[in-house]
Amino acid sequence: MNKEPKFFKGRCDSCASETDVITICSVWGPWSFSVCKECLEQGKDPYKYIVYYIAGAGRWPEDINAGYQKLVREQLVLHGISEEQFKRDVQREFDDLMEIYREADLASYNDIHMEDFFD
Ligand SMILES: [Zn+2]
Predict the structure, then answer these.
(1) Is pLDDT of 9 > 80?
(2) What separation in Å is there between the alpha carbon of 22 and the centre of ligand 1?
(3) Distance from Cα 76 to the centre of ligand 1, integer Å
(4) Residue 114 carries which DSSP code?
(5) How many A from CA of 60 to the centre of ligand 1?
(6) Mean pLDDT across the chain
């Protein structure tokens, strides 16, 4: 049985290189993405998914637990992005989410009740 990782030609979701990539599952929510060997070895995850994930949990950093704050700060170093920039990106994504909730006439994600979807 071949146990070599399955790299294929593609675009790295972390650094945008056109190279050999491998698809991995995310610690940042229910996504998978493709990364190159260099990003895989560094543990460098795609920035936009980190923003999506944190914005879904709330505001940076006050709504985020210490463990995830540490993970995020490690990723920001890998991406060369300042915490101020990250805070702005999370806020913009958070505002977009709130707009979606408003349009759906929901105060928040907590107002989604599964029983409303079933008879
Ligand atoms: Zn890469």
Answers:
(1) yes
(2) 10
(3) 15
(4) G
(5) 25
(6) 88
Cα(90)–Cα(116) distance, integer angstroms: 30
Query: pLDDT digit string (tens) for 27-49?
Result: 888 889 999 999 999 999 999 99
Q: Where are the beta strands (DSSP E) in 5-118?
A: 8-11, 18-25, 32-36
In the predicted structure, residue 77 carries a pLDDT above the cut 70: yes
**pTM for the predicted model, two decimal places:** 0.79
Using the mean position of ligand 1's atoms as its centre, give its distance from the Cα of residue 55 in Å: 23
Q: State in Å: Cα 41 to ligand 1 middle.
A: 9
Residue 46 CA, ligand 1 centroid: distance in Å: 9
**Do 52 and 60 contact (CB within 8 A), yes or no?**
no
Contact in structure between 25 and 49 (CB atoms under 8 Å) = no
